Amino acid sequence: MNLSFIDINFKIGFVDLDNLKPEASIYIKSYSESLSFESIIPDTQTIEDYKIKTENNYLVNNALRKNGKLFPDNGIDYSHNIIDKTDSTIEDYLVGEIIQKQWFDTVDTEYERFLELKKTLERRIKNESKVPFADKNRRIQEIRELLVEKLGIEFPVLLNEAGKEDLASSIIAEWLLNCSLDFV
Fold first, then answer.
1. Nearest to 99 by CA among 79, 118, 84
2. What's the rounded Cα separation, in Å, for the pair 178 and 61?
3. Whether 90 contacts 50, CB under 8 Å
4. pTM of the full predicted structure?
5. Which pLDDT belongs to residue 34?
6. CA dihedral (68, 70, 76, 81) positive or negative
7. Domain ranges of the chain
8. Could you give the CA distance from residue 35 to residue 164 in angstroms, rounded to a whole number?
9. Closest Cα to residue 95, out of 31, 152, 38, 32?
């Protein structure tokens, strides 16, 4: 079909999107002010739905068991505190899932880098968790500081301070739920 307003020498070129992926991070850096990955806090019902869905699931039982070890063994009943702490763990996990979904949908190359970093740090934490340590709360704080530092180095454009804290808390929550972070 010949259209009079199109030049006869006009050619359509097809571009493979994979060839553009290296440029994506340059684009992201140049427009960093316009990027915003906000933390969306799940409501109480979402947390309850997660608990119901995983009630007999080993993930919630892991969190309950590990969070129980964060409290002193002094004869005081901390069961309500442990349940609250486990709810917070689930909330932190869900916040991170939302951030990761946003990354997956918008900056998949950066998301893949994030997964690789998380996997590398998870191996390290898993091995270090095999050795007993006296102050478990301090150990979690050290891990959080390490995560915030690494996330800041690797993703300075994508994460503000709150985003680093939220993602670090989410990773710790995931590790508490799935046993990578354990207390001997």
1. 118
2. 10
3. yes
4. 0.70
5. 42
6. negative
7. 17-178
8. 15
9. 38
- Please check whether residue 99 is in contact with residue 152, taking contact to mean a CB–CB distance below 8 angstroms: no
The pLDDT value recorded for residue 114 is 95
Give dist(CA 129, CA 115) in Å, integer.
Answer: 20
The tokens describing 142, both together, are 């050290």
Q: What string of DSSP letters covers the chain?
A: ---TTS-TT-------GGGGHHHHHHHHHHTGGG------PPPHHHHHHHHHHTTTSHHHHHHHHHHHTTS--SS---HHHHHHHHHHHHHHHHHHHHHHHHHHHH-HHHHHHHHHHHHHHHHHHHHHTTS--S-HHHHHHHHHHHHHHHHHHH-TTT--HHHHHHHHHHHHHHHHHHTSS---
Q: What's the pLDDT score for residue 96?
A: 92
Tokens 């997964």 identify what position? 115
Q: What is the pLDDT of residue 142?
A: 93
Residues of the chain under the 50 pLDDT cut: 15, 17, 21, 30-34, 184
User: What pLDDT does residue 143 have?
Assistant: 93
Residue 68 CB: number of other CB atoms within 10 A?
17
Closest CA to 147 of 120, 109, 183: 120
Q: Quick one: which of 156, 161, 174, 172 has its CA closest to 25?
A: 156
**Residue 33, pLDDT score:** 46
